[in-house]
Amino acid sequence: MEKATPKISVIVTLYNRTDFILDALNSVVNQSLDKELYEIIVVTNIDVNFDRDTEFLGSIKVLKVDKPQVGMKYLKGFKESRGDIITFLDDDDLYEKERLSEILKFFDGKKGHIYYHNSFDLIDDNGKRINSNFRINDQKFSQSTNVLLIQPKYRLKDLVKAKKIGGDFNMSSIAVSRSILSNGMVLLSLASASPDISLFMESITINSEIFIDSRKLTLYRIKSSSPKTIELNDNDQSAIKKPQLEAREGMINFAVSKGNVMTIKYANFERNDYLVHSEFRQLIKEQSISRDMIIRRIKKLPFSKPYLWRYFLAYFVIYLILLIFPGFISKQKLASS
Questions:
Q1: Using CA atoms, how far apart are residues 98 and 100, in angstroms rounded to an integer?
Q2: S-S: 198 plus which of 62, 94, 191, 236, CB 3.0-4.6 Å?
Q3: Are the beta carbons of 86 and 175 closer than 8 angstroms?
Q4: Prior bond to 153 cis, omega within 30?
Q5: Distance CA 109, CA 113 (A)
Q6: CA separation for the pair 197, 272 (Å, rounded)
Q7: Are the CB atoms for 129 and 123 separated by under 8 Å?
Q8: What is the spatial distance between Cα 304 and Cα 291, in angstroms, rounded to a whole number?
Q9: For residue 183, what pLDDT is reported?
Q10: Where exactly are the structural domains of the chain?
Q11: Which residues pair with 123 in a beta bridge?
């Protein structure tokens, strides 16, 4: 007898390691949701073997993708999926037991394009919950208690707000209606970095309803082995990285090709915010900071972009400190090094 079509497809992505895959899969297998209502698809670039003694583990689809683009894993998994709701899990992250049940409740009865993102707790290599001032590009994640619903037609400031509370970060926290991926997955499939941001971009391009849920339904692992090399309180996260910059340039090209004005505005925000924040953090890491350095960076700021004014204020404060107390910052930095 043919099994009923699942409501949810969970795409688990695996790259160059098997350290955590069993824990990840067990967190999906042990969901409170009826197992007939969801399926698991593992997409990997290496051969994997795991215990399939239980009937449900035995039903997991394992797909192999050798393509270098990280987005191709999601494309492959999506093509094999059957659910109306598509959600994701990195191999080193975990789901809370009720995550899929809560997602199904949220999507039940909704029509149109839906983008959903839940908050998360942090865990270490051993799966133990930890506290951390974890940030990337000034986004605050696990501390957020914000709930945000954004309806089409968007305002740029609402999309920027979603960004600032981590609404486009961590594939393991994202679920979308099938229609979003059926629309083409052009940007996501080409992504060599930042697939989460690419998926957010695709969602706003087709005017999806966006919901940022403050409930912590995912466990995000930090300070784990390669390739996710995010460290606790790592101040080096904001250095300009070529794949990250190329991903954002690709978003602008994608937005222009679609001719969607709001998508173009948001794509430019992504690029500008990434570059300016990266340069700001590089400045802070310098052993000695001069007023000339501050002036050069201020002149590079595109002041027509209101969302970058906060960087101007940060530079201005540093400039005033150096004006009143020459050498103060360099002495402080040298004393703490």
A1: 6
A2: 191
A3: yes
A4: yes
A5: 12
A6: 14
A7: yes
A8: 23
A9: 77
A10: 8-235, 287-337
A11: 129, 221
Q: Which long-range contacts (CB under 8 A, 24 or more apart) does 74-77 make?
A: 74/11, 74/13, 74/43, 74/171, 74/181, 74/185, 74/188, 74/189, 74/195, 74/199, 75/185, 75/188, 75/189, 76/43, 77/9, 77/11, 77/13, 77/41, 77/43
CA 303 from chain centre, in angstroms, equals: 27
Mark out the alpha helices in 40-153 (DSSP H runs).
55-58, 71-80, 99-107
Was domain 8-235 assigned CATH 3.10.20.30? no
Q: Collapse the DSSP code of 221 into the 3-class scheme (helix H, G, I; strand E, B; otherwise coil) and give the result.
A: strand
pLDDT given at position 140 = 52
How far is 32 from 24, CA to CA, in rounded Å? 15
What is the gyration radius of the CA atoms in the chain, in angstroms?
21
Task: Give the pair of three-digit tokens for residue 244.
Answer: 């990250």
Distances (CA, A) of 309 to 10, 124, 306, 314: 40, 36, 5, 9
SS3 73: helix
- 229: helix, coil or strand? coil
- Across the chain, which has 337 residues, the per-10-residue mean pLDDT values are 83 89 93 96 85 62 84 91 97 97 95 94 89 55 70 92 90 96 81 86 93 94 57 47 84 89 91 86 80 85 75 86 74 49
